[in-house]
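Board notes (copied after class):
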Amino acid sequence: MKKKKESLRASILESLKSRNKSRSKPAGKPDRPEGTLIASYNVHKCVGADRRFDPERTSRVIHEIDADIIGLQEADTRFGERTGILDLRRLERETGLIPVPVAGVTKAHGWHGNVVLFKQGTVRDVHQISLPGLEPRGALIAELELARGGSLRIIAAHLGLLHRSRAQQTRLIVDLMSDGGEIPTILLGDLNEWRLGDRSSLNTFQAAFGPLPPAVASFPSTLPLLALDRIMANRRGMISAVEVHDSPLARVASDHLPIKAVVSLETLESEAEARSQTA
């Protein structure tokens, strides 16, 4: 118990340091870097920090982010027959985001609440993975051919609340990476891990993704202290530093803040050229 409290304290202190650094930046909206903007957002079944169910508000936050690819978690009702909560057709009309198709579901948006939306490109392949553990959890794997050039594999996941379950789930995802590991891959989602250091279940990911990027606090949205949401890539330099999308609307629309990063198109194009030369 003492070690757990020390780990939580260290995690909170690290998050406070990150927040202080971000507050020292000049005010104003930064210019969007060149590349493909990706994001991850646990929409909390469209229930906000004010406990109000408001899918319209959630959609407005997605508008704000303006991502080219975004992974959503908890986008379906959780119990019984899963049913999608957002108006995806309206979202497509207004933002150009379309969902990666998921087989075998009728009313749900995604797989175990995981949805991947993208703006331009084509879907090459989709896999729906059931993750081990006591809770029903899953990962959605989508291989996309981007209109701007290059191929990209997205693993959108929502890991369990129990440490033992997360340990099993991270090992399975790393095992999946061995199949097609040459594809530039980004893992994103609510990984539900606040621990830092040796006890973190995320350390397993280093085998496939290398050293973990710095933690960025995204939970709870009203006072972010814990880095439960993550974006990581299996190529060094493929994504920019991960940031939170921290707006007044995002602070209340869910109990998580969205996080985002920019994919380097040059990296993807170089990968595609190298594969074509060896084909």
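Comment from the instructor: The mean pLDDT is 85. The longest helix spans residues 2-23.
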